[in-house]
Structures are given as structure tokens and as C-alpha cells.
From TrEMBL:
<protein>
    <submittedName>
        <fullName>Pyridoxamine 5'-phosphate oxidase family protein</fullName>
    </submittedName>
</protein>
<dbReference type="InterPro" id="IPR012349">
    <property type="entry name" value="Split_barrel_FMN-bd"/>
</dbReference>
Amino acid sequence: MELKAYFENNRGFGVLATADQQGNVDAAVYSRPHVMADGTLAFIMNDRLSHQYLQSNPHAAYLFREGSEGYQGKRFFLTKIREEQDSELLDQLKRRVYPKDKPHEGPRFLVFFKIDKELPLIGPGEETD
């Protein structure tokens, strides 16, 4: 699983862009996605603007810049396929541990996306249809 190894071995900076049904755009910093066995990407989300926009428009874009020098990374064009709220799988995948005196508040969602297109961070990539 090439993509799983890529995200496990590369630290960096990610941005998830979403838009609602009216075309209002949001961009938010997100950690590396979880690459599932079926090749989908999953993000853990709070119930904020990115998650809210995905309720009316399932399309998103994720940009990942590797932590190395220069502009290495990937761009993904995504379509939401499903989500889970406060699930056991979400608890297994979470990377952040909250102190007992400051527990996470509010619902959390594990949102799954199929990859529609993958391109390098810089440049057009190869044309594929």
C-alpha cells in the first residue's frame, strides 16, 4: 500500500478545502489522512465548517506539503463516501491524546473519501482521463 507508507513516513503540513452548496469556500489545516485498506482516505473532523460544508457538497481537495526543503507533496481531489460519528474505529485511529482534565468536547466524525485524482504539489501532473 504505497499511499499508506507515504503518509506514515512523511511529516508535513496539510490543508483540506471544502465548499458548500452555494459555493462558499473554506480551507482548514488538517493532519495527515488515514489511508484505509480499501484505498480510501479518512479524516477525523470536529463539527465545524469543513464538516458542515461536506453535508451539502461531498467534494473536497486536500493539499499535503512534505516537511522537507522545497515544495514536495501531493494534491488530492476527493469525494466523500460516508462518515461515522464517535465510532470505535475513530477511537482506534486518533493520534491525539487529550489530558484527562481537558477531554475532547463535542461530537467527532470519521469522514471517508474516495480519491478522484492525485497530482503532485507543484505542476500539472500527468494527464489522465
